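Materials and Methods. Structural model of Cupin domain-containing protein. The 161-residue sequence of Cupin domain-containing protein from Basidiobolus meristosporus CBS 931.73 was retrieved and submitted for structure prediction as follows.
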Amino acid sequence: MSESSAQHTCLLKASEIAQLEKTKRVHPLNSEAVRHTVSLGDMVGMTTLGVHHVTLKPGDESTTYHTHHMVEEFLFVISGRGRARIGSQVSEVGPGDFMGFSQTSAPHTLTNPFDEDLVYLVSGTRLNADVVDYPDIKKRLFCFENQRNYVNMNDIDQINQ
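The predicted structure was written out as tokens:
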């Protein structure tokens, strides 16, 4: 592979990104969580870090209120406004605002209650395993390789030694 073609596969110009078709993604536990996404990281061959250009339409939510036990993620707002629920706090966010979530950080979600699109970058580590808690609906997701299993948190037996 020549140097120029290697550089080209690593670079997505803003004009190219603007022309890309977005994929509509609906969260399996929340039909109000609808994102329109372009997976930029996939397009340049990244395998251990997901990077997504996301549009939240007015009235939509990004995901179900959750926290990861193993994965780290961040969101960076490009345009529009939204409301970030992080733990017990709700804050308005807008262009240039950054949210970072380390392993087992506060649960979080993002909504767009405004009249314009909310556009942001979201990125997270890609691991072979993760555990995700959804405290509002009392569910836990176990991810291992390509398997995803939801369980009711009330059905989990705690082992005290």
